[in-house]
Write a structure and sequence with these properties.
- By secondary structure, the chain is of the alpha+beta class.
- It has 2 domains: 2-222, Hypothetical protein, domain 2 (Endonuclease III, domain 1, Orthogonal Bundle); 238-372, Nucleoside Triphosphate Pyrophosphohydrolase, CATH 3.90.79.10.
- Helices cover 44% and strands 11% of the residues.
- The chain has 14 helices and 7 strands.
- The strands form 2 sheets. Strands 1, 3, 4, 5 and 6 form a 5-stranded mixed β-sheet that branches.
- A hairpin with a 2-residue loop joins strand 5 and strand 6 (325-335).
- Helix 1 packs across helix 11 (186-199), helix 2 runs antiparallel to helix 8 (128-139) and helix 9 (148-157) crosses helix 11 (186-199).
- The chain is elongated.
- It binds iron/sulfur cluster.
- The site of iron/sulfur cluster has 14 residues, from helix 9 and helix 12.
- Iron/sulfur cluster is lined by residues 153, 156-157, 200-201, 206, 208, 211, 213-214, 217, 219-220, 225.
Length: 387
Amino acid sequence: MRVMAGNRAEANLAEFQRRLLHWFRVSRRDLPWRRTRDAYRVWISEVMLQQTRTAAVLPYYRRFLRAFPSLRALARARGERVLGAWAGLGYYSRARNLQRAARIIVREHRGRFPAALDAALELPGVGEYTARAVLSIAYGAPFAVLDGNVARVVARREAIEGDLRAPARWKKLQAIADRWLAREAPGDWNQAMMELGATLCTPRQPRCGECPVRAGCRAFRLGLADRLPERRARLAPVRLRIAAAVLVDVGGRTLLVRSSSPSSGRLGDADGGLGPIFSRMWHFPAVSANGDSRAELERFLASKFAIRGARWRELAKLRHTVTFREITIEPWLVLVESLPPGTGRAVALERVPRMAVSNASRKIAVAALAARREPFPSTMQGCTCGC
Ligand code: SF4
């Protein structure tokens, strides 16, 4: 009896694999990273797709590979150039880690993405998911991936309840994904599972009627597809106000600052302690504001940069979101005779939107450039220089 049940389970699994692979091969979306098995290109796509929608990734993927067509080109490039090519995609640690990893690969793996799982996992920014995705797609290695899309498909097919990200449950989901892996085509299989989760077995309103593998799906049979997986309790967002100063001297140059160490993030640091909000890239001097943003910014500029007697203009507020933080940025255009020396980087304000800066800094620069083109009123708002 047990042998028969085992045979039936194997036959069901084989049928599931056959149907899903067939569906993927005839109806997959045509994406540029699916036209290659080159490990470098697969790796770039997998890193870009982390926490970013496919449609948003497409232009960045093409541009990035035009700028850095090979792993060696990426390893050789200046860090600022890499961040510039990444600018707008967010989560800049991904770009920094990509380049650090590329340099390690050139140094220690002769420029080839390592084929062994443990060696891949030692690279900065390469976790279980990325390593398994690259190795299975580029090298056909027998590793099943587990990301949010795959976890949802597994949980629904097996009618698994509870928080999928709970460590024990995630481990169980990975074990099931490993068992289901089609060993003759691991790369296609992983992409088929992800494609199913991204296009039909979606978080809301799964399209079970079109699903090629609904036979054998417990959630479908039990009418639970809409209810699984259970929604995670959302953390209440943290609201922050930030006052930022676009200092501009008579030559049209502005001052950018940056956290000197990755652990910097305390108020009172040279950059106002807001490095993480600005993705640890060059940004305008800023402080966290609790009351009168102008007064707090003035105090900050006076104490950190000895700036007094400047001409101020308020710019439109900006909204910005970084993970669980909802940030309101209150930018000010501050005209000064000269920029404080030795406190950061002086660059032409016009250049800032084209530099490797975060989206928040870019938006502030664009607002400041627009405001600068308008004449300051003869009686300056809040001017303290006696003009
Ligand atoms: Fe997902 Fe529905 Fe397909 Fe089951 S039948 S795998 S719930 S889309």
